[in-house]
Amino acid sequence: MTGEYEVNLRCSPSKKSKAVRAIRVFLQREWDKLRLGFRLDGDISRVRLPSVGTPAQDAELWRHTCFEAFLSIDGESAYHEFNFAPSGQWQAYRFRGYRDGGPLSDDTISSDLLIRSTASDFELEAAIRLGALSKNHTNAPLRVGLSAVIEEDESYSYWALYHPSDRPDFHDARGFTLLLERLVLKPQGVQKV
Questions:
Q1: What CATH number does the domain containing 18 carry?
Q2: Distance CA 137, CA 82 (A)
Q3: Which of 109, 167, 181, 182 is deepest in the core (most CB within 10 A)?
């Protein structure tokens, strides 16, 4: 997947990876969707990846290899968290503020999970339906935090766009460092403003 944004995640200094060289994320904002493509480069045989199953919602995916996106409307303390597992399972959460919230049971929020793997890379693509979060999410500027939990042979590594402290905490809004511009409909189509 290619997108309008391409960013690299950084490994937390407190938990180095022995198997992963890099994690890149591609983002593409459409009118009602945010498309994400996570690409992990490294020795995939040393990364614990569950078998691919039927895409479905499931809890506590962050306890194993998982790719995550955090979205908030710019300037607001409420946010959403999305977890995407290599198994095809996913979960969405809504928070009123820092860790104050819980899971969403709406299975229309996420879709289009695609998974590919070779000996040297793993790719996961997903789409988040912004309109299912709120009408404001389709045209407001969004703050985004991207992260990954990687389970290796005997350890974990934690990756993010930005680590606000030595201890990994993906819910810390200071890590939501990517600003996606709002979109508006024009007669010629969707345009960034």
A1: 2.60.40.1190
A2: 15
A3: 109
